[in-house]
Sequence to fold (457 residues):
Amino acid sequence: MVAQTVLVVDDEPDIRELLAITLSRMGLESFSAATLGEARQRIAELQPDLCLTDMRLPDGNGIHLVEYIQQEFPDIPVAMITAHGSVETAIAALKAGAFDFISKPIELERLRNLVSSALRLKDGATAAEPEADESDLRLVGSAPQIVALRKKVVKLARSQAPVHIQGESGVGKEVVARLIHANGPRAARPFVAVNCGAIPQDLMESEFFGHLKGSFTGANRDKLGLFQAAEGGTLFLDEVADLPLAMQVKLLRAIQEKAVRPVGASSEQATDVRLLSATHKNLATEVAAGHFRNDLYYRINVIDLHVPSLRERSSDIPELAHALLQRICSELDISVPTIDPSAMTALQRCSFPGNVRELENILERAIALADGDTISADDLQFNAQPAAQQSPGPPGEAPLEVAAAYGNLEGYLEDIERRILQTALEQCRWNKTATARLLGISFRSLHYRLQKLHIED
Fold:
């Protein structure tokens, strides 16, 4: 079997020798170059499986080599060797297309992890563009925006650069993050997703970094944090804008140093994770308002990826609706109903402020309400709340009921539905047959709603 090759570009002989010895012990064949011009010549001749380059070279900048490789040999991953603590340099390299970076003085274990990840990427460089299927329903569609997004996912999966995924609630930001992970060299390792807004503030440090037994009241055993759980894989920080400022400082250090200190520990532990983040808020606006740290913003926002709203790709609604129906019915183990033309027209006219998540909820409700094998426009229940109940507010302002739903439409609607069901159940002394009759729905529909909303006797 032919050994894989690595080109080391550095003007310091000691660094070249150290890297050559380390790579040799990994079973790799290494070559070296001391200048930018020599490196370009060696790359054209050898076309190595990986290139490691210093930032400062006698005749140029390492970023120029990254750009050259990206343009001429895009299948060759290139990693940058930077000065210790030079965050701006590392970010510039990642934006130019570098796979990853490592700081001097070089830690050999971190170098081995970087090389292994890069070579796994090279082995899978010919992987096809991911197909939209039941596991990534929110990327189903053929609108130009979604086609472009799928192509970006493939490209970004090849890098280790932090990606910030921006988009409205319900567009499928986590699905995009999972696809980036699944199509990259870390696919076989864990994907750990966390909603930053759902962690109590006093438990955040323990949740992210772990803790040792006895480090605080209630710490009855050692606990791994999210960084340790995602070791070798991807950590996805959803709604990252909800992190309090105190936690943002600690997260920034963990990202920059690639190490975490568990609560109660006296030393840091090295970590190897790829960081992806998302929020429905505008992070630049949050920074300007003083709610988000400027340095953390630039660290996690190396590459910005926008996920289009459903309004921006309304032509995908028919295809998306059919795919969602197939998944929902497969989970319920029932036959897939058809959507009659009037219902499809109603769906295409809807603005879907809750995006794909709202479409999915509407279809789940329609499946429960449909009497036969066809979903009608009435089953969609777009007009379930009478207009008379919308209390008008001052000119130019949304009614109070509407304003209360902003940012959490599904939760707002579920709360209304839960109150209606509980009131009806109490009126009927929790007789479900009588409750279904009172509400004018089938017993099957009532049972489905009670399960969905976790309403128990």
Q: What stands out?
A: The chain is about 45% helix and 15% strand. The longest helix spans residues 409-427. The longest strand covers residues 274-279.
